[in-house]
Amino acid sequence: MSCHDTQNARLLEYLKKHQVITRLIATRPPLLIMNLWSRVAEIEEEIGYKLDRRWITTKTGKRVLEYWWRTGKQQKRAA
User: Fold this and answer.
1) Is 27 helix (H, G, I), strand (E, B) or coil?
2) What is the model's pTM?
3) Around Cβ 43, how many Cβ atoms within 10 Å?
4) Closest CA relative to residue 46, chosen from 2, 76, 13, 73
5) d(CA 71, CA 77)
6) Helix and strand totals (H; E) in the chain
7) How far is CA 39 from CA 22, 26, 35, 61, in A?
8) Which three-class secondary structure state does DSSP give residue 28?
9) Percent of the chain with pLDDT over 90
10) Where are the beta strands (DSSP E) in the chain?
11) How many CB atoms lie within 10 A of CB 15?
């Protein structure tokens, strides 16, 4: 990882490629993001991208939040 490789940058790249992420996915390599909610909040507030979220139930019955691009692609909020 380079000095320009931040968690927010890794998260944005992952979403561009895979469209959807959960907390469990975020904790695994290559992302290694332990606090996904904080990264999502930063991306929305500081960078201006819109992400949607919904609760899903896994095969084991656990409820987890799933995040994705609001329109299926990266969209910045209007200034």
Assistant:
1) helix
2) 0.79
3) 21
4) 76
5) 12
6) 3, 3
7) 12, 10, 7, 26
8) coil
9) 77
10) 20-22, 51-57, 63-69
11) 20
